[in-house]
Design brief:
The protein has 359 residues and is of the alpha+beta class. Helices cover 26% and strands 27% of the residues. The protein folds into two domains: 5-74 and 202-357, ApbE-like domains (T-fold, Roll), CATH 3.10.520.10; 84-184, Orthogonal Bundle (T-fold). It has helices spanning 63-70, 72-80, 88-95, 105-120, 130-135, 148-155, 184-201, 296-317, and strands at 5-6, 21-25, 38-46, 49-55, 101-102, 163-166, 171-174, 207-211, 215-219, 230-235, 243-249, 252-258, 263-266, 269-272, 288-293, 325-331, 338-343, 348-350, 355-357. The strands form four sheets. It has a ten-stranded mixed beta sheet with strand order 2-3-4-8-9-12-15-16-17-19, with helices on one face. Strands 1-10-11-18 form a four-stranded antiparallel beta sheet, with no helix packed on it. Helix 2 (72-80) packs antiparallel against helix 7, helix 4 runs parallel beside helix 8 and helix 7 packs across helix 8 (296-317). The chain is globular, with a radius of gyration of 20 Å.
Length: 359
């Protein structure tokens, strides 16, 4: 996911540690004729990004709950990371091509959910695509164009349909040698869902959480009893400081996919970091895609799959029962110009200046 959506803007303060508690002024939104409230932010670094919980002034008593709940990120990351040999995902990758591997219920359910999105998007989202990402150099954030042979070699190790899941036994097995899984495309959203659930259980009902800005979950209201939710911005796909529009988000999640930050040029052609696991090559005719769903994990996976599918794939899938509300951003004719198209009814806080409303 690229960081092309933004949480409510605020005045930055120096980073004073891993966990922070700070207040800042929310700028006025055109859709709300009121003085915006001060927000308190609690942050923690995990999963190679920064997670943050924003708390409105009427819920300040929950700051300690937010600090404690964010500590759960370490446990979640230790389970899902591919960078620790003792994590559950690493155990799967080390042994599942030889024997079925028993995993915890939460990990098994997350893998099941990922496979469901692979099926829905006809393989455009695939947690087994890691070898292709590595072949293109994006695992080390050092993009390169692989040879056709390297692409085919990597593709031979990819395919969600070769994941064998045994629900009664709660085991995972690979039906192909040298396969591996990486839950990075859905794990961040799942972490947001888990954190949100714990905050609600602790009695906090009005909050916004984000993971690196590209995955956002909003609960309740930014302003007490307003019924509006939280104002969340959508940024320009290649100029993240430039705001294109704002959306009211209430008891829903938002995820933005794109390749505005990770890309390289080879012989005059631009290659983004989002790889189509079905072809082995970078894909997507969209500059970015933002989807709105009830679950942050679903939004992450669905957004990635639809971005990979591109305009033609989206047109094929848009009548499916699960299809989300979406904001599609395409490159315009001039440099940095974009065209915005919407699918479904969007609750705008700041509508785009030149919006092309879809059905």
């Amino acid at each position: 996911m690229s960081d092309t959506s933004e949480t409510p803007k605020r005045h930055k303060e120096p980073n004073q540690g891993r966990l922070q508690d700070r207040s800042h002024q929310q700028p006025t939104h055109r859709a709300a004729d009121q003085i915006p409230p001060l927000l308190t932010e609690v942050t923690r670094k995990a999963m190679a990004t920064e997670f943050a919980i924003l708390i409105p002034p009427h819920s300040l008593e929950a700051v300690e709950l937010a600090v404690t709940t964010l500590e759960r990120l370490d446990e979640i990351e230790q389970t899902l990371t591919i960078y620790r040999p003792d994590s559950e995902v690493s155990r799967i990758n080390q042994n599942a091509d030889k024997n079925p591997v028993f995993v915890s219920n939460s990990t098994f359910q997350l893998i099941q959910r990922a496979v469901q999105w692979s099926r829905r998007t006809h393989g455009a989202f695939d947690i087994t695509a890691g070898p292709l990402v590595k072949a293109w150099g994006f695992t080390e954030r050092n993009g390169r164009k692989p040879s056709p042979h390297e692409v085919e070699t990597a593709r031979a190790k990819v395919g969600y349909q070769y994941l064998l899941l045994d629900s009664p036994k709660q085991t995972v097995q690979f039906d192909k040698p040298e396969m591996s899984i990486n839950l990075g495309g859905i794990g961040k959203g799942d972490a947001l869902d888990q954190i949100a659930s714990e905050l609600r259980q602790g009695g906090l009902n009005d909050f916004l959480i984000h993971g690196g800005n590209s995955s956002v979950l909003a609960a309740g209201d930014q302003t007490l009893d307003s019924g509006l939710g939280w104002a969340v911005g959508i940024s320009h796909p290649t100029k993240p400081k430039r705001r294109l529009a704002g959306i009211w988000l209430r008891n829903q999640a938002l995820a933005t996919s794109g390749s505005g930050k990770q890309f390289f040029h080879h012989r005059g052609k631009r290659y983004g970091h989002v790889i189509d696991p079905r072809t082995g090559f970078p894909t997507g005719d969209l500059a970015s895609l933002t989807v709105i769903m009830d679950s942050a994990a679903d939004a992450d996976a669905c957004g990635t799959g639809l971005f990979v599918s591109g305009s033609s794939g989206i047109e094929t899938l848009r009548n499916e029962h699960w299809f989300p509300k979406a904001v599609l951003i395409r490159h315009g004719q001039r440099q940095d110009q974009v065209e915005i198209n919407c699918l479904g009814e969007i609750n705008w806080a700041d509508p785009p200046v030149e919006e092309t409303q879809g059905r």
